[in-house]
DNA sequence: GATCTATGTAGAT
DNA sequence: TCTACCTAGATCG
């Protein structure tokens, strides 16, 4: 499910499965029916991800998809089965078909609208064209907490609640510190780490952030396997012992989102 | 069966 | 800072 790695993984999959050939597009649920009929039968020129946004580019326009909290794609080999549940968009290619359920956004956009979305996003660690300095300019001049800045898609695109919590833990940085307290070296380390972690996420489809020496098979603790699918240090581990120092993991709601950190490894 | 929760964002207040 | 929205799986009773 959806942080940036999920969308890049989907873009890669959709490019491979459906790119360069005509596709059938429909909206069994009906909410996307008019736009679906516009692109139905057209060639899917390219699938692309930017941050948490996915684009299906056609000659005639681009389908813009944002999964929000609950959106999902399911995929299977042909033949396509009757729709189950609320299927916003169904895409049928030469060998496979995929159903989109529960997206925050699914809309047909013109090129200037696509450009506008990209323009308001910060650098995406999963894109080769990313300029991390742009994010640091925002961060290093802000009194806002690092926790909020890392989740702000206009500062940094693609990082969500799991990567935010985990990358701050991995660098021993307290989430409540103001952006301006971060020095350029720390920022470079965080950025490079996000590139590594998120690329691994694209490959595996899960978020794993725990270093080898802290893994359950090394330390003897039980593997955890949260619903997001990977081994993590602090995300959703409230009250459980920190994997490094044993202190109970802290939790607080910040701007309507759950924030997790280790009070000892990430001192204020 | 009802209720809760979630890796997100936009728009109103 | 709040509320609405999109859905399905987990949890409660």
How is the secondary structure organized here?
Layout: H1 4-18, E1 24-26, H2 33-39, E2 44-50, E3 53-58, E4 61-66, E5 72-77, E6 87-92, E7 96-101, E8 105-109, H3 111-119, H4 132-139, H5 146-151, H6 161-170, H7 184-204, H8 216-219, E9 250-254, E10 257-261
Helix pairs in contact: 1-7
The structure holds a DNA duplex (13 and 13 nucleotides).
Describe the structure.
This protein has 268 residues and is an alpha+beta fold. It has a four-stranded antiparallel beta sheet with strand order 1-6-7-5. A four-stranded antiparallel beta sheet has the order 2-3-4-8, with helices on both faces. Strands 9-10 form a two-stranded antiparallel ribbon. A hairpin with a 3-residue loop joins strand 6 and strand 7. The mean pLDDT is 94. The protein binds a DNA duplex (13 and 13 nucleotides) through helix 6.
Number of strands: 10
Radius of gyration: 20 Å
Shape field: globular
Round the mean pLDDT to the nearest integer and report it: 94
Termini, distance in Å? 31 Å
Helix and strand sequence? HEHEEEEEEEHHHHHHEE
Low-pLDDT segments: none
Secondary structural class: alpha+beta
Beta-strand percent range: 15-25%
| SS field, number of helical segments | 8
Strand order of the biggest β-sheet = 1-6-7-5
Biggest sheet descriptor: 4 strands, antiparallel
How much helix, percentage-wise, in residues? 25-40%
What are its keywords?
268 residues, alpha+beta, four-stranded antiparallel beta sheet, globular, DNA-binding
């Amino acid at each position: 499910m959806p942080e940036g790695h999920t969308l890049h993984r989907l873009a890669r999959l959709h490019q491979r499965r459906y790119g360069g050939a005509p596709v059938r597009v429909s909206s069994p649920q009906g909410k996307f029916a008019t736009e679906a009929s516009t692109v139905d039968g057209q060639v899917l020129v390219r699938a692309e991800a930017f941050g948490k946004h996915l684009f299906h580019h056609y000659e005639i326009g681009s389908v813009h998809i944002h999964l929000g909290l609950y959106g999902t794609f399911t995929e299977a080999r042909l033949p396509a089965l009757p729709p189950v549940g609320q299927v916003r968009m169904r895409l049928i290619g030469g060998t496979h078909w995929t159903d989109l359920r529960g997206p925050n956004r699914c809309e047909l956009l013109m090129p200037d609208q696509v450009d506008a979305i990209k323009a308001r996003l910060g650098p995406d660690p999963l894109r080769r064209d990313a300029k991390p300095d742009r994010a640091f300019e925002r961060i290093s001049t802000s009194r806002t907490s690092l926790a909020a800045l890392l989740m702000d898609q206009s500062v940094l695109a693609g990082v969500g609640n799991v990567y935010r919590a985990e990358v701050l833990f991995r660098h021993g940085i307290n989430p409540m510190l103001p952006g301006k307290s971060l020095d350029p070296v720390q920022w470079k380390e965080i950025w490079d780490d996000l590139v590594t972690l998120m690329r691994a996420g694209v490959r595996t489809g899960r978020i794993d952030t725990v270093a080898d020496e802290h893994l359950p098979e090394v330390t003897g603790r039980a593997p955890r396997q949260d619903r997001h699918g990977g081994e993590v240090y602090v995300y959703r581990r409230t009250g459980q012992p920190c994997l490094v120092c044993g202190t109970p993991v802290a939790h607080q709601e910040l701007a309507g989102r759950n924030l997790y950190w280790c009070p000892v490894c990430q001192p204020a």
